[in-house]
Amino acid sequence: PLLIIIVLITHCCKRRNLEGKEHHPSSIMTEEPMELTDEPDNDILQDMDDGQLSEYGDMLKQLGSHPDKVLINTLSMIAEDYSISFPISSNKIYNAIKEFLLSNSIMLECKLPLVYVMDSILKNAKGLYVEIMRKDHQWMKEVYIMLSANEENKSHPHTLARDRLRRVWNTWNQPPFTIFPEIEWKAMGKCFLDEDERIRAEKLEADAKTKKAGMERKPDGSLKLSIVLRKQMEAVLDELQADQVDELEKVSLERLADINPDLLVEIKNAAVAALENEPPSGSGRSGDPILLDGRLDSDGKNGSGGIPSLFVEMRPENVVRRCADWEKLNIDHMEVTNDSIRKLFRHVREGTSSITIPSSPAPEEEVDMVKLLGSASATASTLTNLLERLKEQNSNKGTLSFSAGSISNDLPGSSSSFYGNTMLSSSKSIDRSKFTTEGLKEKNDSVISRLYEGGLPFVSSSDGKRFATQIELSKHLDEVFRKAQLEVVGD
Prior knowledge:
It is a single chain. The protein is mainly α. Helix content is 58%, strand content 2%. The protein is built from 20 helices and 4 strands. It has a two-stranded antiparallel ribbon. A two-stranded antiparallel sheet has the order 3-4. Helix 6 (111-125) runs parallel beside helix 9, helix 13 (253-259) packs across helix 14 (261-277) and helix 16 (333-353) runs antiparallel to helix 17. The two termini are 56 Å apart.
């Protein structure tokens, strides 16, 4: 610090003396004549001698691994004094910094602060240093190679320093600086452009391998995997990373697809094999085949020719066969449902017209008939509401529907807590055109009321959270009570 202060005071005094002579020439005329001697004028800036260059090198060594802003500014100010009319001194300063950058005796952690010094000189001093850099920029590639150690470890400090070196290079062709033309700038950072090309080629190769293995990419970059298969693959990956990888360095399936697609394919094969050997839920028999695509051949095996698909069928075999038979039927569900509703209402009308109110307790057969007719009427009403909702949804394609309350509770066995939160509730449509920056700024009271009163009508008295059903609210209150009890026991 003392050396820095001495250098700053010396340069400030020289500048002040020169400025005084330029702005007050009359003071020179009033002075007594001086004898001409061969002694040099110390007030005139001269080329940097070996002693001054050695002091400059000592200041570069003081940087160490910490980019001290004050010290970097001091080094830049000294370089600025020689940036116009002192090509020899400018080359000496430039070469001094370059020698430290390329020296094997300087630790890699100390390279980046030296790069910051060079960057500050180019942006602030400019002048001759820009021309020197245009002719001699190979040190950038050599420093990049030095900092590429342990490249496979993305959190290694040398790798982070290399990324910061790239950011410095990027600023040389960006406003407000734009120090070098684009052609020269690209030549200086050819090592970075080559790295980008290598990464792009590796990405294409990795995507080709994952696509060949049946794992394509979605537009957002995630892998197209079924929920069951993804869960199993993540379990296998977690097991691999459990003991060998630090928690902060664990990768996801998508990241693994970029850095090691071959390992991802092996993980998928292991996950599929584990799913094939696992009995389906609810089957009760460990020997039942796992259906991966929902289709069976004549031997009871999956119909994909022995090649497992990405979806695991969890239903029993008889249910799958029955659903497959229903899918083969070519019927118009709207027309059939209308016909069924008409027949049910006709039977209800005919049956109720023939029933008389007896004066004595009715026979058991008549009571059963009344119950049957009531069930038929309730079924017809339910089908009617479902059909109306289906028609409304088909007519409102391209809009979003929100629940707007429950239907009438006149149906036998109906309850507001059940029907109010199912697909039987009526709906109102919200135009998608309102989902814009300006449209969302407008308050829509009806949408807000449907969201809270219709969609989430049950409010927790403990914390104000809303729920769609009474059962969800009860579970939440039980969980709140359990946590409170645990806190009491802990205290």
